[in-house]
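Take a specimen:
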Amino acid sequence: MHHRILKTAPNIVEARIIIGDDEEPWPESNGEFIDMLPLHRLYVSDPEVFDYIRAPAFAELSMYVEPDSQIEHLDSFLACSSCALRRLCLRGSPDSDITATILNKHLSITSFALAPSAPHGQDDDDPDVVATTVNKHITMLTVDSPNCPVVAPHLCEMSFGSLASMSVDYHLFLEMLESRHRAADCALSTAAFLTEFGRSRPRVPAILDRIEELRKRGLRVHVESGSEAAYTVNCWAYVCPWISVM
């Protein structure tokens, strides 16, 4: 159904494509593309969608991925579309090494967001699974020492979000921010950690002091929990508030 809709609506600017398990398979692409010239923002639940479209004005992507997801579909789409991807949001349970590969390869990405959930077949609200995915990505983005290579130094903005009642490791988060702030070639200027549940809010004075110190140094750090934070995280997938998020 999505394939037919896209063919009849090539002028849309924003799209959200969720491929259900019971949906009829898309036809073989055979190298034929649906040209969506004005498409600017897109959410997809299956990277194979990229095999069917071209979008030269494309700039913002939100994508559901599993640990074993293949990124070749994304690479070929960006190359075929000759577009400059500016913002990337990953949902689901992405592998941090694959994320690093994407960020290092596509230097046009200046904004990165992560809003994980458990893989298919597991409890979506499993806080341990979500926390593990978040922490692996934060560790991957941390600069271990001044002489170490930096993953995606071109990132100006990074955001982490959770709709699970996870325990946030703010020490790890701030350590990453401080390390990138010290690195000479890092462009980071804005960082956020948004959670739905209030128990994830930082309360330890030492953590709050470190956040304030980073702000004094010019880094915009935003930490928030509650319904407004959850709404913002959902918006990363270009979802209306009454729609259940995948």
